[in-house]
Amino acid sequence: MKKFNLDILKPKSKKIILPQSGVSVTVTLPRVKDSYNKEKLSNYDNYIDVDFSKLSIVDSEYILMTIYSEQTDVLWTHYAECAECGAEVVSTYNTDDAQIGTIPDNKINVFDGLDIVLKYPTNEDISKYRAECDDQTIDVLHKIVQSVFYNGEEVLVDDVHAFVDNLPNSVVGKVAGFLNNQPTVLFDVNVACECGNKSAETITFAEHLS
Fold first, then answer.
1. Which of 4, 127, 128, 205 has CA 20 to 30 A from 84's CA?
2. pTM score, two decimals?
């Protein structure tokens, strides 16, 4: 009997294009032995050829969806309650049909004549961010100022921290709105009950995992 060659089981990989940045990433899919190493399994840098902490929220979700779907199935199940009869409705949707939400404008008008352009936050930028905390919004703002325009002309800011700290406080709410509206991975699900009622729902990748 011929001996099985373990090289046949070398890790599979999949090349994807990240939806927001457009960067091409090779995702190496976990193997059974990775399940025994929780530390490795939870460090996504082990499975991609880019720095996970530097990715935007939606790009990182897209990678997680790729890893998750390859370990489960491309068809996922959604449970909903019929609005007409109250029965539980089971629907399926395909991960290949994933979409991303609307990308918010990253230019913030401070006041007439002064605008700041923000970079889209990475996982590292918002790792400790809580929407209800103004001080954390300001902390993130220190990290994501990309450029400053005064009277339509880009100007150099030597000390970003000092610049941010001297902005009018009204800018905090605008930045919080920008941070809280970052796009996520979305799925449109058709819900059809046996009673004849039909509806469409949009769920996020995070909702699928919950």
1. 205
2. 0.80
